Amino acid sequence: MTNSVSITGYTDGDVDTNRSLEPSLESLAAERFSRRKALMGGLGATSMAVFGTTMLSACGGDDNLSNGPVLTPGNVAATSAGRVVTLTVTVSSQTVTGTWTQISGPAVTLTRVDDTTATFIAPAVSTGTDLVFAYGANIGSGGLNASARSTVRVNPAVLGFAAVAKNLNDIVTVPAGYSVTVMTRLGDPLAAGLSAYANNGTDADFDKRIGDHGDALHFFGLGSSGARDDSSSTRGLMVQNHENLNVQYLHPAGPTTDASGRRPQGEALKEMMAHGVSVSEYADAGNRKWSYVPTSAFNRRITPATPMQFTGPAAGSALLSTAFSPDGSKGRGTINNCANGITPWATNLTCEENWAGYFRRDGSGAGTDTAKRSAKERVALSRYGVTSTTGNYGWSSVATSDTLFTRWDARAKADDAKQDFRNEPNQFGWVVEIDPYDPSSTPRKRTALGRCGHEGAFVQAVPGKKLAVYMGDDSRREYLYKFVSNTTFAQADANSGNRIAMGDKYLDAGTLYVAKFNADGNGQWLPLVFGQVPDLATYAFADQADILVNCRLAADAVKATPMDRPEWTAGNPATGEIYLTLTNNNAAGRPLAGTDAANPRHYNDPKGSANTAQYGNPNGHIIRLREAGDDQAATSFRWDIYLFGADSADANADVNISGLTAENDFSSPDGLYFSRPTNALGQVKPVLWIETDDGALTDRTNCMLLAAIPGMVGDGAAKTITNKDSTGATATQATFAGASATAATLRRFLVGPVQCEITGIDMTPDGRTLFVGIQHPGEDGTPAAPSSHWPDSQGNASVAATVRPRSAIVAITKDDGGVIAL
To answer: Pfam families from the xrefs (predicted)?
Structure first.
């Protein structure tokens, strides 16, 4: 009888055939057997390799039953990094017991499916690389042995999805072949005994529920024992910031006041508790079937009421003294948490951004707070925008003596700062370190990193070098900062069980710098150190604590470069280059005569059918820099502009400098994230993810997420552009532009629901699940007429018109189990 066994060397949903690699039938047969032996009589076997539409076959046999039939080598196949490869044996009329093993090439993890089939993820490579696999088997009941080899050539990673079209749909749209799972949403319970979120404005207990306006996020791995496990892709802690509120949806008919204009205490408390940070456990039930664990012991809310500890040079300063903490060492809570940073020792850095408007002061004139302040205080308060006469949401108006509410009243009322909350604004605007694995730990406000409208805090840590933290200050014409630790980073500290102590070691002592971008493509880091920072005409610095509490004034004093809303920072794990999103600027912030090489555009992007003018830099750009000597402690760097946002439909070459098309045009880059270096997305040429928070292009599309494979600083050229203002006047500006975008290097991966912002992004270490935050869908709607119904609208075309939207996280997976985007 004849035993028939078929070998398939490779299968892939994205069939990617490199025919030049295919050997001839003769070379396959000759690899192990001579032609004469293959044609010998006796017990016969036929083996074949199938890849795509190509079939190769060879016959072999031997009348020596002790050797049995031998499976001839399979076909040579090609794929690219990150894709799923399937090695399989197709058997007819016999039972096969065998296994696949790797013979050569970069090591991969073979996942055994059954006796005939195994899969693996193609590894990251810098050039075409062959991987050889062998299959060994026992066939039938006669103990006959068989073996065969297959070769797979892996090529460097490429973007492997069709670009998502711009759209105004009320769903999260992803490429074909991908699936979306909605994860934690506004109001979801984080403790036992809480009811499901009613989503009608009646819910309370937000100190035990997911907060609103989910922003930056990170997945911290958990092992089966509940200990930290950075390699876990199936269980982890999702830490997410909660920046602000769609306040109209938190109450039955929106926020209210009493006859005296005071806010009800219950409403104000709900709003306050919906800010801050959440920690929730995520778990994969198998094959990336994700859900969250509402009663996990790790679940935690950090709110504006959570006790905080100040550390670093400003801790204990009189500038931080309040009635709650007369010695200036403690505080309560964190607010307006925007982007983040992750330390090597697995703590989360949450960043306090637009906090200034939450505080009440009053106007000028005799007896007012302004009159009671010193000249220096007035300058500092104005520079940070602490000028509201009510405070966001009016929390200080609640009729109570509870300092949880009265502290939002920053007026000078008592004899000194130890008896009121005039300094409460100085307690915010910091980078806050949180240990996600210890729900009982006290977060630390790290004052050495300066106080501003912190957008993010990207940590660059290289063993044997000083640690650096790169930070944007998210307001128009603000600055890019860098903190460099005094202590050299030791890799062993990354695994410390005392994580907060590592923060004490590296984040409390060092030098804070601010960036100056020169017209020649070089730049300097200017130290903000007492004695080296000159006084301003309106402000004299008293000590280092003063410089850190008022680092915007210090940056003004050293003449740093004002930027177009510096937001997220991210570092390329392969090159060490630092990227910074500059979201946008308006005509007042970036007039025709106010451009410079690093912020070079002034133009109009007309919006909507009315062609509403949008002058300035409404679409934003992304700048990048490379430190001198590739050392993050360097005091000089080179820079260029990686990408310019633009509407490709109506932008000329002086606006659409990066050559964007309908498949990759974008506006207002905000979130920025390089893929983890633990998978093919983050190796060799790491994939960069770009999220948008747009108002300029939203007549054509909702906000979006793009995937990019960037080059390096200097891959483009010097360029002179012509700007134009609303009067028709023109001016030229020289700059340095990176290489133009192409379909191979930049594509739109996701479009969000109506009126949302795409913000917050991370992935599992294996790169097979991508977590993305969808913030404030339907932000312009009302309780009676919500303008979005997401996430209920995801997969539900008939959702009720009264369903209120909720910020939420989505988990995105590739249907074939491969690495996202490749």
So the answer is: PhoX (PF05787)
CATH superfamily of 2-155: Immunoglobulins (2.60.40.10)
pTM here?
0.92
pLDDT at residue 29 greater than cutoff 50 = no
Buried b (16+ CB within 10 A) or exposed e, 270-304: bbbbbbbbbbbbbebeeebebebebebebbbbbbb
E strands along 711-764, which residues? 717-724, 730-737, 746-751, 757-763
Determine the pLDDT at residue 148.
Answer: 78
Query: Has residue 63 got a pLDDT over 50?
Result: no
Instruction: Give residue 206's identity as a one-letter amino acid code.
Output: F
Euclidean distance between CA atoms 496 and 502, whole angstroms: 7
Helix count and strand count (H, E) for the chain: 10, 45
Please, which pLDDT band fits residue 367 given cuts at 50, 70 and 90?
confident
Non-local CB neighbours of 817 within 8 Å, separated by 6+ positions: 84, 119, 287, 288, 768
Q: CA Rg, the chain, in Å?
A: 30
Q: How far apart are CA 388 and CA 378, in angstroms?
A: 13
CB 705 within 8 A of CB 758: yes
Please name which of 629, 655, 636, 481 lies closest in space to residue 562, comparing C-alpha atoms. Answer: 481
Cα–Cα distance, 38 to 711 (Å, whole number): 51
φ, ψ dihedrals at 557, nearest 5°: -65, -35
CA-based nearest residue to 597, from 737, 395, 751, 807: 737
Q: Which residues of 406-434 are buried (b: 16+ CB within 10 A; e: fewer)?
A: bbbbbbbeeeebbebbbbbbbbbbbbbbb
Take residue 597 and report the two structure tokens written for it: 């090489």
Beta-bridge mates of residue 549: none
Cα atoms found within 13 Å of the Cα of residue 425, Cβ hemisphere only: 28
pLDDT at residue 39 is higher than 70: no
Question: What's residue 645's pLDDT?
Answer: 98
The H or E element containing residue 248 is helix 247-250
State how far the Cα of 436 lies from the Cα of 237, in Å rounded to an integer: 7
Domain residue ranges of the chain, discontinuous segments joined by +: 2-155, 178-355+428-814
Sign of CA dihedral 368, 371, 372, 378: positive
Q: 417: closest CA among 319, 329, 332, 333?
A: 319
Residue 401 CB burial class (10 angstroms; 0-12, 13-18, ≥19): exposed
Distance between CA atoms of residues 455 and 431, nearest Å:
9
Closest by alpha carbon to 688, among 668, 700, 705? 705
Count Cβ atoms below 10 Å from residue 180 Cβ, excluding itself.
18
Distance of CA 301 to the CA centre of its chain: 21
Q: In Å, how far from its chain's centre is CA 706?
A: 12
Cβ 471 vs Cβ 570: under 8 Å: no
Q: Determine the Cα–Cα distance for residues 114 and 102; give it in Å rounded to an integer.
A: 16
- Beta bridge partners, 77, equal 152
CA torsion 46-51-54-59 (nearest 10°) is -10
pLDDT the model gives residue 366: 82
Q: % helix / strand / coil in the chain, to the nearest 5?
A: 15, 35, 50
Give the pLDDT of residue 10: 30
Nearest CA among 673, 521, 561, 694 for reference residue 620: 694
pLDDT above 80: residue 640: yes
Nearest partner of 421 among 350, 358, 364, judged by Cα: 358
Distance CA 711, CA 725 (A): 32
What's phi and psi for 705, nearest 5 deg? -130, 130
Whole-number Cα distances in Å, 150 to 4, 103, 155, 347, 539: 18, 10, 16, 44, 73
Q: Each residue of 194-212: b (16+ CB within 10 Å) or e?
A: beebebebebebbbbbbbb
